[in-house]
Structure formats: structure tokens, C-alpha cells
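Input C-alpha cells:
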């Protein structure tokens, strides 16, 4: 169950990061509200996952999911650069996440 909590926490991290971008510096109410609610959910779920998982593994996987998800959504939603080198390094982070899960 802890890996489910951790994955969900990572998804909520992606949502709060994207909604924070849409909040335009917390000047727009709806995206600001979404940011606050999903950030809270992300932290709560991360805490639940850490009850069973090692700190370093849980934190690395949580941030890795957030990094990969926000980087890809930045490319799709905000037209950020999708250079081959950038995509390679995003892929390496993804490989690291998978490796941590497999080695646990």
C-alpha cells in the first residue's frame, strides 16, 4: 500500500506544481486553491508512504515522479523546449525511479 501512497503523492505533486504555474504568483483564486489542496494531499500521502519506506527512497521517488511529470507537462502545456538532451535526462530520472522501486 505504501507504494500506492507514494505514487499518488507524486501525482499530486505534479498537479500542485502545474496549478501553481497557472496561479500566476498566487493571484488567481482557483489555481491557488488547487495548489494548496493538492500540495497538502501530496505531503500527507508522502508521510503515509514514509511510515513503511526508507526516507531516501521515498523522497527520491516522490521528487522524481514530480520532476518527470512536471517536465513533460511543461513541454506539453507551456511549450518548454523538448531538446533531445533534455528528454534524455528526463528519461534517466525515470530510469532512476524504476531502479529504486526494483531495488527496494
Amino acid at each position: 500500500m505504501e507504494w500506492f501512497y507514494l505514487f499518488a503523492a507524486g501525482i499530486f505533486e505534479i498537479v500542485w506544481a502545474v496549478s501553481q504555474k497557472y496561479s500566476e504568483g498566487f493571484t488567481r483564486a482557483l489555481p491557488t486553491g488547487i495548489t494548496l489542496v493538492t500540495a497538502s494531499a501530496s505531503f500527507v500521502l508522502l508521510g503515509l508512504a514514509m511510515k513503511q519506506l526508507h526516507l531516501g527512497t521515498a523522497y527520491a521517488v516522490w521528487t522524481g515522479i514530480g520532476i518527470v511529470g512536471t517536465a513533460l507537462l511543461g513541454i506539453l502545456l507551456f511549450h518548454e523546449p523538448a531538446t533531445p538532451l533534455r528528454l534524455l535526462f528526463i528519461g534517466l530520472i525515470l530510469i532512476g525511479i524504476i531502479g529504486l522501486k526494483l531495488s527496494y
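Residues 57 and 104 are 8 Å apart (CA to CA). The chain is about 85% helix and 0% strand.
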